[in-house]
Amino acid sequence: MKVINNIKDFKEEQKDNILLFTYAENGAMGWTNRINILTKDCEELLCYKFDFEEDTKEEFYKIIPWFKDLQYYSKSNESLNNGWQHIYTGHGNHLYLKAEIFNKHKSEILSKTQRDLYVNLHDFLKD
């Protein structure tokens, strides 16, 4: 997996290739206020990692505009009305998957512990 540490390197045409993203809320265990976006570009997984701070928030909202209006960070798993699925991975960490990715791997995802999802979240994307 190729890691890219600057959200400004995200290209508009990659929006359709987003598989999932993670968000660590303020005070979360791990890297606080961090967002990771996984995309699939041909056969390569790309991971965009960046701190969710004032200078990067607007860049991220251009990619995932509905996140700006999210009023809370749920501690449960739920389907969002915008084609995304939220999975709480514990200790203030959140996983958002495109609904089609979640539905394709639903049984495997739901059988994992929060820790397994947090540590190995891209394992089910290998096919």
Please give the order of strands in the largest beta sheet.
1-4-3-2-7-6-5
Major beta-sheet overview: 7 strands, mixed
Q: What's the multimeric state?
A: single chain
Helix count equals 4
Between the first and last Cα atoms, what is the distance in angstroms? 14 Å
Shape: globular
Q: How many DSSP-defined strands?
A: 7
Report mean pLDDT, rounded to a whole number. Answer: 86
Q: Helix amount, in percent? A: 10-25%
CA radius of gyration: 14 Å
Q: Give the H and E element order.
A: EEEEHEEEHHH
List unreliable stretches of 5+ residues: none
In summary, what is this structure?
With about 130 residues, the chain is an alpha+beta fold. The protein has 4 helices and 7 strands; from the N terminus they run E-E-E-E-H-E-E-E-H-H-H.
Explain this structure to me?
This protein has a 7-stranded mixed beta sheet with strand order 1-4-3-2-7-6-5. Strand 5 (78-79) and strand 6 form a beta hairpin. The radius of gyration is 14 Å and the shape is globular. The protein has 4 helices and 7 strands. The model has no long low-confidence stretch (mean pLDDT 86). With 127 residues, it is α+β, with helices and mostly antiparallel strands. It starts with a strand and ends in an 8-residue tail after the last helix. 22% of the residues lie in helices and 32% in strands.
